[in-house]
Amino acid sequence: LWAYYFAAQHFNVAGQFQRALGLIDKAIAHTPTLIELHMMRGMSNWKMKKRKKNEKMKNEKKRKEKGRNRK
Fold first, then answer.
1. Side-chain half-sphere of 19: how many Cα atoms within 13 Å?
2. What percent of the chain has pLDDT over 90?
3. What contacts 10, CB < 8 A, 6 or more positions away?
4. DSSP state, residue 1
5. What burial class does residue 42 get, using C-beta atoms within 10 Å of its C-beta: 0-12 exposed, 13-18 middle, 19+ buried?
6. 31 neighbors 3 (Cβ within 8 angstroms)
7. Phi then psi for 34, rounded to 5 degrees?
8. How many CB atoms lie under 10 A from the CB of residue 16?
9. Tens-place pLDDT, residues 27-56
10. Which of 1, 19, 29, 55 reaches 20 to 30 Å from 39, CA-CA?
11. What is the reported pTM?
12. Is-contact 19 11, C-beta < 8 A?
């Protein structure tokens, strides 16, 4: 259980959120009452959404800059 938790924490910090969520899901299946697991799952989901939002903003900024350079 704790090996899943700490491995998921490692992958979360490394930015590998899908892998972290897979490990957290295994840990939750093992012990669904441990609140730390649910907190880690929420944090991974939040970080993954934040990264997607930042990537979207960067892509939009690049697209706008390309449009300005063509004029």
1. 11
2. 77
3. 20
4. -
5. exposed
6. no
7. -80, 110
8. 16
9. 999 999 999 999 999 999 999 999 989 999
10. 55
11. 0.74
12. yes
